[in-house]
Amino acid sequence: MDKETKTLKYSFASSVGAGMKSIFKGSKKTFYILEHKIGSKYHRTDEQQHIIVDQIEIGRDHTCHVRFDELFETVSRHHAAIVRDDNRLKLIPLSQKNPTLLNGSKIADEHYLQHGDVIQCAINGPKLRVIIPSGRHAMTDSISLKRRFYLFGKQVVEPFQKTFVMIICVIFILLCVVGIYIFIK
């Protein structure tokens, strides 16, 4: 990780747990939307990205949940994060080199987000509008089950792809060892 970037700790287990709650306990979990105000290689202008996990990173790194391409040079690899804090969303700037702006003002510390806030990754950088649904439409079960599984894959599996591969390899090796043990016995 760049020296000019703060680290944000989140775990594979907490991401999987938040994703599973969104899938199977959707009537008890809320989601929010990030609307891309500038198009990029990964997102169209005005595309809405539904977020069902409790913590995301925004940046150019392949592990970021909201990713921008290399054309956005002022966007750091790990630029900012949005973390669920009880029922509120908190924006945390991670880049020490490139500023994070909230509604046009540079921020140095974490800030709570409200519906309609605009996050900008660096001056003249890409903008994201925060949409926080209300009432019944705020619950993840208002999103189809098929879509929730898709979002789980994008927001949990992809950022932790190496971890998933390692787990699958360990399970495969254990099954082979058990199979050989049973076959020899």
Please describe what this structure looks like.
With 185 residues, this protein is an alpha+beta fold. It contains three helices and eleven strands, in the order H-E-E-E-E-E-E-E-E-E-E-E-H-H. It has helices at 12-24, 145-157, 161-184, and strands at 32-36, 48-51, 55-59, 66-67, 80-85, 88-93, 100-102, 105-107, 111-112, 118-121, 127-131. The strands form two sheets. A six-stranded antiparallel β-sheet has the order 2-1-11-10-7-8, with no helix packed on it. A hairpin with a 5-residue loop joins strand 10 and strand 11. Helix 1 (12-24) packs antiparallel against helix 2. The longest helix is centred in the last third of the chain and has 24 residues, at 161-184. It is globular, with a radius of gyration of 19 Å.
Blueprint of the fold:
Blueprint: H1 12-24, E1 32-36, E2 48-51, E3 55-59, E4 66-67, E5 80-85, E6 88-93, E7 100-102, E8 105-107, E9 111-112, E10 118-121, E11 127-131, H2 145-157, H3 161-184
Parallel strand pairs: 3-4
Antiparallel strand pairs: 1-2, 1-11, 3-5, 5-6, 6-9, 7-8, 7-10, 10-11
Helix pairs in contact: 1-2
